[in-house]
Amino acid sequence: MATKSGSLHSLLHKGAVWRGRQTADQPRHQSLSSGYPQLDALLPGQGWQASQLVELLYQEEGSGELGLVLPLLAELSQQERWVLWVDPPHIPYAPALLDAGVNLDRVQVVRSNSRRDRLWCLEQSMKSGCCSAVLGWLPAGQEKAIRRLQVAAAEGECRGFLFRHSRCREQHSAAPCRLLLEPHPEGVTVSTLKRRGGWPLPPRLVPVMPSAVGKPQSDKNRRPQLTLVGGSDEHAKQPRH
User: Fold this and answer.
1) pLDDT tens digit sequence for 17-41
2) Which of 4, 56, 57, 48 is CA-nearest to residue 25?
3) What is the pTM of this model?
4) Which domain holds residue 63?
5) CATH number of the domain encompassing residue 220
């Protein structure tokens, strides 16, 4: 019985068991505020959790998905570890990141040559311990890969963000946090489909302002620029105005 009791205590300590009369929020020191009080109220621990994979689901690009994470990226980029973007559909606009407070010296954009390479890069970067945040774009049908990515994020104490189409909402996912985003004239409406330690929550309006992160760079030689690693940025769609 002592062994079983010890195992249960360990699970409770890790937050792996939800205790019905408690919110099971993670300790505050493991969370960083999203920069939006309305969003923090939806997230366990009142912020983005360390060692956790988050799915951001939306129907169309530009639904506020990047605006939700920019305040976090700005804070994390002041640390020594990297903020990594893996195969974003548009070339991130460096001046807009600077305006949001992001330190470009700690940001890298990776271009892979295949879906297999993309998954490998996401998994290795999350578990390496060298990245404070990893952003990746995944199509449907990646359930097994998402489970591995959650394990990798926990191993590397990394905050992982997967950007996916809203049609993936009906698919099983091992991500502890799943948010559905819908554009709104005053920002973005966020619905919590899944969160660790609590029930799904109804939509809440978050006043995310449209960002120019995807604005095209008309002058290739203009500074500042982001560091591109591997592959080529030629297959990336030109960002929309």
Assistant:
1) 444 434 444 444 479 999 999 999 9
2) 48
3) 0.80
4) 30-235
5) 3.40.50.300
